Amino acid sequence: MELLYICKSDLFNVGAWLTFVVGIVTVITEIRKSRKTTFINTVTQTRKEYITKLRELTAEFCVKKDNANAYQLKLMMNPAGFIGWWDDEAVKLIEKIIESQDKSDIDKFVALMQSWLALEWHGIMNEGMSGILNKNKKGALRKQFYLEYKKYLKYKESCVQK
Q1: For the chain, how far is it from start to end, CA to CA, in angstroms?
Q2: From the centroid of its chain, how far is CA 123?
């Protein structure tokens, strides 16, 4: 009988410790999830503000074609990080517009910025659904929208030639 009492007592202790450990693991997991959710929400909000500012500056620049908006737009870009596309192309178009104010350059710039805004919006939606996008998914998304932009430019050029 005494042996049975000791076994029940030991089982109770083991059960209590297991419950305690599971509780600690649950708390740690929930803290990590909360931090990740907070981070994603912060990034999403910041991207929304970035999109709004980019849209406003783009519209003002296309109307006024002034250096002040041109510099603000350039400061929102990273041409060294995207040589040959996106930011680099936007900066080049901004400079061409300031120099010549050619309508076709403005149209190209607007189309680029529309694609850029669509890219940002889809990035927000994808991150909202699946969490932080890895480098490959971000790259694929950028490539997809940049190729759509180039395809649109070819379409516009073919319409003008007709």
Answers
A1: 101
A2: 4
| Positions of the chain with pLDDT lower than 70, given as ranges | 1-12, 162
Task: Return the closest-CA partner of residue 16 out of 6, 8, 26.
Answer: 8
Contact 159, 136 (CB under 8 A): no
Which of 57, 153, 56 lies closest to 108 in space, CA to CA? 153
Instruction: Give the C-alpha separation, 46 to 40, whole Å.
Output: 10
115 Cβ contact list (under 8 Å, min separation 6) = 145, 146, 148, 149, 152
| Whole-number Å distance between alpha carbons of 136 and 62 | 33
pLDDT value, residue 7: 62
CA distance 42 to 34: 12
Round to whole Å and give the CA distance between 15 and 37: 33
pLDDT at 109: 93
pTM of this structure: 0.71
Residue 140 structure tokens: 């694929």
Condensed to tens digits (0 to 9), the pLDDT of residues 56-67 reads 999 999 999 999
